[in-house]
Protein: Rhodanese domain-containing protein
Amino acid sequence: MIFASALVSPAQLAAELGASGLVLLDCWFDLLNPEAGKQAFLDGHIPGARYADLNKDLAGPVGPATGRHPLPLAGDLQRCLGAWGIDQESTVVAYDDVGGAIAARAWWLLKWLGHREAALLDGGLPAWRAGDYPLEMGVAEPKTKTGAYVGQPGRRGVYDTAAIEVGLRDGTIVLLDARDEKRFRGRQEPIDTVAGHVPGAINAPFQHNLSDDGRFRPAMALAEFYAPLIGKGSADQVVCMCGSGVTACHSIFAIELCGYESPSLYVGSWSEWVSSGDRPIVMA
Structure:
């Protein structure tokens, strides 16, 4: 174990940079400009990092009944991890430029495979730059051996749309929507074809997980935010969603930081909910 926590500060990472078994994933991505992330990576990243593309590496093929970012096939994901030099004993730290909003998807996928040592860089690349730590340009030669990765898919809870419908009908789940309030209430929808939210969902914007500097808020502050939303139940009754199952992973990470058990992920999220055109929506 290189780090004691799943949340790593820039100073802690800098002290271990180049350590044996440490693999960094740069998850810089722009939903509205998908090619911008790779270019940003080439322009400057933490030394030794690999680039993890949200659309190509951290999601599977999109179909007519899926959301925008379905889970990748387990075999494809494991081959990708192996190509990055990740094995079961690696310590993986993911980061991006937006407080972990994208990087949390990489963290969650690793935990879904049963990976033990996965973490986020607190504050991401902006915090790294602010600390005046080194950057690297272009694509570096991997310093770790590439090979096979063998995980155990299914180590984190996953809901599909049918299970969400049943859980809401029977009152057995608490559905937290991590999108911002404007999207949740249908006042603004820059990405998906339909605005609004799932009836019965509770708005819990992932931005509440972060301080103004883009770092995670203290665990006590996170608990004060999430405890009233979770209520008297347990976190294993909580399902997190967003637009496509990405920033929902950020909420899952934050809830775990509070000390709760890991909530489940509604992978398809809002983009899958509206894909059929006949499911109920709320705009308020």
Q: What stands out?
A: The radius of gyration is 18 Å. Strands lie at 7-8, 22-26, 50-51, 91-95, 118-121, 158-159, 174-177, 202-203, 238-241, 264-266. The domain at 7-130 is CATH 3.40.250.10 (Oxidized Rhodanese; domain 1).
